[in-house]
């Protein structure tokens, strides 16, 4: 009974130690620099220290014969059909995600909580401003760095941390089959909730949580962590590349984030329907492969 709790506590302890170490390295080497380059190095070190390294160390402790990649389901591949369906679902989901984010941003707290709403809005604006600083790229070389730092590395590290570690801890792989099945849905949604909350962006909370749940279900269906990693990287990569290609005018830079909203709300609805159908097709395909 206490094994999942012990694993959770060990993982959190590793996360705290590795995060503090990453912060210490950044302060020592960059002296707390607030330049874009300095903050990008902070992003890199925090991604490694907070999400990637603690999960791998934890998996090494918990796996039989100390095989962390097997415990994290990184030793499992997937067919090209699964990969194609996963990428297609992620691309088709973009207008739907934008629509949900737009609806989420319209949430108003009660008047007596106006001060909280102001804080949340300020956090959102600060996060958006920092993201724009990171996304700015004058040439293809900087673009490649941004793809690695803002798309590929976060996708790998966050999926290893959330779906690979947290979701599996909550699911309790040591439980009986019947009990594990009951825990699976709870694990997916609780992990998705924490995944969204840790980004500290209230006005994008709902679409990010739903996206996290989508990654969680795909992980369970396919049995390979590489599939949600691929989907996560696709989502991040689209944002990075779209910002670079549409750069120039401020209105152009936000176009990719507004498709599916406003007068194009209908495209957001179609996007959600098509995404659900693609995910159902992916589920059916994985069930046939496993039967």
DSSP strand count: 0
- Helix % is over 70%
Shape descriptor reads globular
Q: Low-confidence segments, ≥5 residues, pLDDT <50? A: none
Q: Can you tell me the number of structural domains?
A: 2
- Total of DSSP H or I helical runs spanning 4+ residues: 12
Rg, alpha carbons:
20 Å
What is the rounded distance between the termini?
31 Å
Largest sheet: none
Series of secondary-structure elements, N-terminal to C-terminal: HHHHHHHHHHHH
* Overall pLDDT: 89
Q: What structural category arises from helix and sheet content?
A: mainly alpha
The percentage of residues in β strands lies in under 5%
Describe the structure.
With 291 residues, the protein is an all-alpha fold. It folds into two domains: 1-71; 74-290, no CATH class. The chain is 80% helix and 0% strand. The protein is globular. The chain starts with a helix and ends with a helix. The mean pLDDT is 89.
Keywords:
291 residues; mainly alpha; 80% helix
SSE arrangement:
Layout: H1 3-30, H2 36-62, H3 68-71, H4 80-92, H5 94-105, H6 114-135, H7 140-171, H8 177-197, H9 205-222, H10 226-245, H11 250-258, H12 265-290
Helix pairs in contact: 1-2, 1-7, 2-7, 4-10, 4-12, 5-9, 5-12, 7-8, 7-10, 8-9, 9-10, 10-11
Short account of what is shown:
This protein has 291 residues and is an all-alpha fold. It contains 12 helices and no strands. It has 2 domains: 1-71; 74-290, no CATH class.
């Amino acid at each position: 009974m206490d094994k999942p709790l012990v694993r959770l506590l060990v993982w959190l302890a590793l996360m705290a130690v590795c995060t503090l170490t990453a912060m210490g390295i950044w302060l020592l080497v960059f002296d707390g620099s607030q330049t874009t380059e300095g903050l990008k190095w902070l992003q890199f070190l925090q991604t490694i220290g907070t999400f990637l390294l603690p999960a791998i160390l934890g998996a090494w402790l918990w796996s039989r014969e100390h095989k962390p990649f097997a415990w994290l389901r990184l030793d499992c591949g997937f067919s090209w059909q699964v990969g194609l369906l996963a990428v297609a679902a992620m691309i088709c989901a973009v207008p739907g995600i934008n629509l949900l984010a737009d609806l989420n941003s319209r949430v108003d707290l009660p008047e007596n909580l106006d001060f909280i709403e102001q804080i949340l809005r300020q956090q959102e604006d600060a996060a958006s401003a920092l993201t724009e600083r990171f996304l700015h790229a004058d040439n293809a070389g900087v673009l490649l760095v941004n793809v690695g730092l803002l798309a590929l590395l976060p996708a790998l590290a966050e999926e290893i941390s959330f779906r690979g570690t947290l979701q599996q801890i909550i699911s309790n792989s040591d439980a009986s089959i019947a009990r594990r099945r009951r825990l699976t849905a709870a694990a997916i949604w609780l992990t998705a909730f924490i995944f969204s909350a840790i980004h500290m962006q209230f006005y994008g909370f709902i679409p990010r949580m739903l996206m996290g749940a989508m990654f969680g279900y795909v992980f369970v269906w396919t049995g390979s962590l590489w599939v949600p990693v691929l989907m996560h990287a696709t989502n991040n990569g689209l944002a990075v590349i779209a910002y670079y290609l549409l750069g120039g005018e401020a209105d152009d830079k936000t176009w990719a984030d507004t498709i599916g909203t406003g007068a194009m709300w209908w495209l957001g609805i179609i996007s959600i329907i098509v995404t659900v159908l693609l995910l159902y097709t992916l589920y059916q395909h994985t069930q046939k492969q496993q039967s």
